[in-house]
Structure formats: C-alpha cells, structure tokens
Specification:
By secondary structure, the protein is an alpha+beta fold. The chain folds into 5 domains: 124 residues, no CATH class; 173 residues, P-loop containing nucleotide triphosphate hydrolases (Rossmann fold, 3-Layer(aba) Sandwich); 100 residues, Translation factors (Elongation Factor Tu (Ef-tu), domain 3), CATH 2.40.30.10; 110 residues, Rossmann fold; 95 residues, Elongation Factor Tu (Ef-tu), domain 3. The chain is 32% helix and 28% strand. The strands form 7 sheets. A 6-stranded mixed beta sheet has the order 7-8-6-9-10-11. A 6-stranded antiparallel β-barrel has the order 13-14-17-16-15-18. The longest helix has 20 residues.
Length: 691
C-alpha cells in the first residue's frame, strides 16, 4: 500500500496526472493522501499516460465519430477487453479470417508462431507480431472491439489478429517460479560453459585466512580490520593462470553453515587453513565437521611453515585422525604447505584449486536471467540497501528487475569487488548492487526477471508464503518420521553427538556407526565433548540431523532455539538405550515385510442366489476360523479361481464377525458371484513381521 503522492513521486508524475488516470480507470481515490492497493498499483503500472489519448483521438478521427469526453473516452480507456459492439459484423470478419487459417497451418514454422501469455495486452501482442500497437487498436476497432494498447486481449481475439498477419497463435506454457530456490531450469548442453570455482576459506582464528587471501589478491586487507580478525563476509574474484577463482572469506564456520541452513549452497571447494605451529585446534575440528557436512571437496592449506616451531608431520597425523588422509600418505585429501606471509607454496595451493575445479567440471549458462545468492548486505543512509551477491548462473545486467528473498527492485548500480562500475556480470562473479527496496539476509537466493511488474508480484507472493511459514514453524526432524524424510537414494541418519567426556562420545559414536540395518547407516557428522551449543543446532538444521546428548542437558533457551529451527534433541545416559532407539528408527526407514497367514478354510455345500445380494455360499468351516475382514481365495479343483475380500458372513439370520471350525455359515465375496458347490474358500491375512 502507498499513497497517491508517494506513487506519483515514485513514477515521476504529478499528483493531478495520477488522480486523472485513477478516475479514468475507475480507481476510487480523490486525494493525494488516499491509499492505493497493490492491485491499483499494478493497474497504474500498465497504464500509458502519453500514448492513450493519441490513439483514442486517431481512432475517432479516422472513423469520424463524435465523442463526449466525459463518457466515451472513459469507455475506450476502461481496463478490460470490451465485447464487440456489432456482433454480426464481428462474426463475418471472424469467418473471413478463419478461412486463411488452414492455409497458414500447412505452411506453419517456428518463425510464424506467436506465443500468447495470460492477460496479454494489445501492446505486448503488437510487439510479438512485430507491428505498431496503434495498428492493432484500429483493427480491433474495425471488428467492433473498443480497446486501448494497455487493455488485456482474449486468446480468441488475439488469434484473429494473428491470422490476419499470417501468424499462428499458441498459448505459452508457464511455470510458477515463486519458489525459485527449488525451481530448476535445465540448461541445454550446448549453452553450458566453464565457470570459475567458488572457494570458501575457513579455519581457526588467527591461523591466517585473511593473510592468505591478502597474499593472493596482493592487497592489504588484514591491516584494515580490527585486530587483524575478519569482521564481515567478503567475496572477490582473482585471476590465476588465465583462469578466474572466486574466494569467499568468512568470519567462521557458523556463517558458512547458517547460509547452508537457508538452502544457499554457494561453495564449490572448501580450503581449511591450519597453522603449522598450532596444529588442529577445537575450532578447526568444527570447521572440518561443517565442511564434511556440506559434502564439498576439501583442500588443506598448512600455513606458517616458515616458523621455526612449525611441525608439519604432526598436522598431517592429526588430519588422518579426523578422517582427512593426505594424498602423500595414500589418501584423497590435497594438502598444500604454504606461508601466507612470504608467499611460499601459494601457487601450489592455487594449482590444487584449479585441479579440483577441472575434475568437477563446474559449468553454467551465461545466456539466461541471473540466479545466485546474497553474500552480505547492509543499509546505507544515502544509497539505501547495498547487497553483495554471487552470480551462480546467467548474466546480471544493469537495470534488471530482480527478486532477492522477499525484496525486489531494479538494479540501479552494479560494481565489482574493486568498486568498478559494470553493465553486466560474469559467471561466479561477486558484485555489489543497489536498487532493492529492503535489506535481504545473507544466504537469500535471488533471481532476475523480465519485468519489474513480474518481480514485484513474485516478491509479494513470497512474502505471503513466508508469513504462512512463520505461523506454521518447521517440523522437527525426528526419529519417528525419518522414513518419510528419506524416500530414495542412500538411506542414512545424520547425527551430532555431544557427550560429557571423550570416552563417552567415542563409545556412542562407535556403537552407532556399527549399526547397519540392510543399507541404512548412521552418519556421525560431529562427535565432541561439552554442552550442546547454538552452533550444533545450526549444523543440525543445515544437515537435517538429530542432536544426541549423552550425560549433557541443554538449557531452556537452547531448547526453544532448537524447536524454532526444527531440530530434535535426544538425551540419554545409557549407551544401549541410544543404540536401541536408533536401531528401531533405522528399521522404521525400511519397507515393511509382510507374510501370509492362513486363518481357515470352508467348503461350499449349497448355493443361494438373490437379485439384491448376489450369490451366497452356504459353507461349512472345516479348519481354523473365517473372519469377515480377512482376504479370501476361491479354490476349485486345486486351482485358485478368484482372490479378493469377504463381503459378509451370516449365521442363521445374524451378521457375524467370524465363524469357527465345525460351524455352518453363509458367505458372500466382494464383486464375485461365480461360486459353485464343492468350491473351497480359504481365508488369510497379511501380517507385518518383525525385522
């Protein structure tokens, strides 16, 4: 909602012009302070203030029609596809046009096919046909249809005009891209080109992340930051041996995983930097867990090898203990020995990055509307929201309408990481943009669209969906519903273990990893000592994991946070209980196994036929029991004639649930009447067996 005055300022028109147009479009506002609804704004956006009067006058002049300004002009300008004024003439014209349709169809090709979009305007149709819009208005007028270039046109009327220009009109198949995070556009193989890899650098505080990137960029970033510690996410692209690499420098693994938790998978490769003199620290262990959970290639950079106290062998041993076996030791983890301070080994690290990129063949399509992710955002009091985005596919251009999270706008400025103004972007390029109406969150996805109207409508829909989600918070990933969560592919339960002592965490981890129920496995993405922390919940959300606490208890604040994030915390103090519940959940993830159990048999001794009931088999139960809710087979001379369900069982005049051995009864079978004397009715049920 916005006032008439605000809208007038927004579109650079006078209040008088807006009020006049509102009057002509029958929008009920009379004052500059009156509010316009979202629908009113959409209608006004489609109105053409300059061309409307000219076209109306031209039609009037050509037809020598006298017009009462207060009545007829308003009718001409009304926002609808007006019905023909002379139905007989219209039908005659229609017949003439359709005579040409069969000729057109025989010569049809892609060149003369025009796509009709829902609520297409006369102007849009004219652009598709490659003719002047006023020409179409005249043709419609000759058909008795009073319309302006901004009126919507029905498919039938548009088809008539298309045939007149020897074109075939087809309805456009449209897809709802409101939820564009999950909307996948399949690019053609020939449109895909190589794109630069996106690399995230992570590690323990003061192990040299920013100094490394400083050396790569040959700029002094670290000295400009408080205490030499990175304060905000930043991204930049560098050229390496005629190839580009995009680097993302984060304040820590939490920001990296929070972006993943929002569905932003922006990283292709993770570089974990470890100081040779410190080795793997507790925070480094968390970084390794987060990188593994992201399921992306990991390259290790052992930094500060120039220091006298550097111990590379110790770091390599520690890596092996954390499941990262160096390539030089027969594993598959690439390790580079570097000194960010002197520059030693940095070229080797960059070569390793390019090698992994080559092996994974990262590609994208530059010839489409851009999609990507917000890296960081801030509000500037002069420029408004300033957003750093990473273009992951397509090309982003100056002036593109864009939706970012729930926000939208038109790109007003486009700058690269060095502050240089751009008119368009490259693939995997981080850029800074302005022109968005709100400040989005880091990790929000963005997508460019054809028109600002489309972008605004999609942003409004996304905001409505977000409100609904707030009212219905994310359901926790629980052991009880894991079977519904995992429907295909490799089945596994992701688990984070937090225990009171190292011995307990190792014991729980080993016990769970030994569980293997027909291919369903436990994947321990983190096992550590200490209280459950917020970072554990963030990692659990991003990885769809369950947090298991052993002899630890979260406080109420953390419990509420976990609930809000949709993460289940399970608390235990006995190991076999953990194993027992996990095994039960894993079995629940498997398809149930059923076996057949014979309940009883009955011999058909007499047949009774009734028009309303069908065939009743007068039977004698020879073995077991015949139940009304059981399945039955009809067997004749040892051959199964029919397999179905019992419809009813009668004992004398009463309907009964079951009849036991040695008793007589009347049985009807659902949807089957061809029962004969001496047939055998065998009752059975399918029973789920315990694994």
């Amino acid at each position: 909602m916005m006032s008439v005055l605000e809208y007038a300022n927004d579109v650079n028109k006078s209040v008088a012009e807006i009020l006049k147009m509102c009057e002509e479009l029958e929008i009920s506002v009379t004052d500059e302070d009156d509010l316009l609804s979202e629908d009113d704004i959409v209608i006004l956006d489609n109105a053409d203030f300059e061309e409307m009067d000219d076209i109306v006058e031209e039609i009037i002049e050509n037809k020598n029609i006298k017009v009462d300004d207060s009545v007829n002009k308003q009718k001409l300008k009304k926002k609808q596809d007006v019905k023909p004024s002379n139905k007989k003439d219209f039908q005659q014209k229609k017949k003439e046009m359709y005579k040409n349709k069969s000729k057109l169809m025989t010569n049809a090709s892609d060149d003369n096919i025009v796509l009709y979009k829902e609520n297409m305007t006369v102007r849009e149709l004219a652009e598709s046909l490659g003719v002047n819009s006023s020409e179409l208005v005249k043709k419609l007028f000759s058909l008795g249809i009073m319309a302006t270039i901004n009126n919507s046109i029905s498919f039938e009327n548009a088809e008539l005009l298309a045939i007149d220009y020897n074109k075939e009109l087809k309805r456009e198949e449209t897809a709802d891209v409101t939820n564009f995070e999950e909307y996948e556009i399949i690019d053609k193989e020939e449109d895909l080109v190589k794109r630069p890899p996106v690399v995230t650098v992570m590690g323990h505080v003061d192990h040299g992340k920013t100094t490394l990137l400083d050396a790569i960029r040959k700029t002094d970033v670290a000295s400009g930051e408080a205490g030499g510690i990175t304060q905000a996410i930043s991204a930049y692209q560098v050229k390496v041996n005629d190839n580009y690499v995009t680097f993302i420098d984060t304040p820590g693994h939490a920001a990296f995983t929070e972006m993943r938790a929002r569905g932003a998978s922006i990283t292709d490769i993770v570089v974990i930097i470890i100081a040779a003199d410190d080795g793997i620290m507790p925070q480094t262990e968390e970084v390794i867990d987060h990188a593994k959970a992201a399921n992306v290639p990991i390259i290790v950079a052992i930094n500060k090898i120039d220091k006298p106290e550097a111990n590379v062998e110790r770091v390599l041993t520690q890596l092996t203990e954390h499941g990262l076996t160096p390539e030089s030791w027969g594993g598959d983890t690439l390790v580079s020995l570097i000194s960010a301070k002197t520059g030693e080994g940095i070229s080797d690290l960059l070569d390793n990055i390019l090698l992994v990129s080559e092996m994974n063949n990262y590609r994208a399509n530059p010839n489409r509307y851009a999609v990507g992710t917000v890296v960081e955002s801030r509000l500037d009091k002069h420029l408004g929201p300033i957003v750093t985005v990473l273009v992951q596919n397509g090309t982003l251009r100056l002036g593109d309408p864009i939706v970012v999270g729930h926000a939208y706008g038109k790109i007003r400025t486009l700058k690269d990481d060095k502050g240089k103004d751009l008119t368009s972007t490259y693939l995997s390029q981080p850029v800074e943009i302005t022109g968005i109406n709100e400040v989005p969150n880091a990790g929000d996805k963005f997508m460019a669209f054809e028109s600002e109207k489309e972008a605004r409508n999609i942003a409004i829909k996304r905001k409505e969906i977000a409100k609904i989600k707030e009212q219905n918070p994310t359901k926790a990933v629980t052991l009880d519903d894991l079977f519904n969560k995992i429907k295909e592919g490799n089945k596994e339960i992701n688990v984070i273990i937090k225990a009171d002592v190292n011995g307990s965490s190792e014991a729980v981890k080993n016990a769970l990893e030994k569980l293997d129920v027909e291919g369903v496995k436990v994947n321990v993405i983190r096992s550590s000592v200490g209280a459950i922390k917020e970072s554990d919940i963030v990692l659990a959300k991003a990885s769809n994991a369950i947090v298991i606490g052993f002899n630890v208890r979260p406080n109420n604040t953390l419990k509420e946070y976990a609930k809000d994030q949709g993460v289940e915390i399970r608390l235990y103090d006995i190991i076999y209980k953990v194993v027992e519940e996990m095994e039960a959940a894993m079995k629940g993830m498997l398809e149930p196994i059923f076996e057949e159990r014979i309940l009883g048999t009955a011999e058909v001794r007499k047949i009774f036929k009734f028009s309303k009931v069908g065939t009743i088999a007068g039977s004698y139960v020879t073995d077991g029991v015949i139940k009304r809710d059981s399945k039955v087979r009809l067997i004749r001379d040892g051959v199964v004639i029919y397999d179905g369900n019992i419809n009813s069982i009668q004992r004398e005049k009463d309907s009964v649930k079951e009849v036991k051995k040695g008793l007589e009864c009347g049985i009807t079978i659902e949807n089957y009447n061809d029962i004969r004397e001496n047939d055998i009715i065998e009752a059975y049920e399918m029973v789920e067996i315990q694994r």
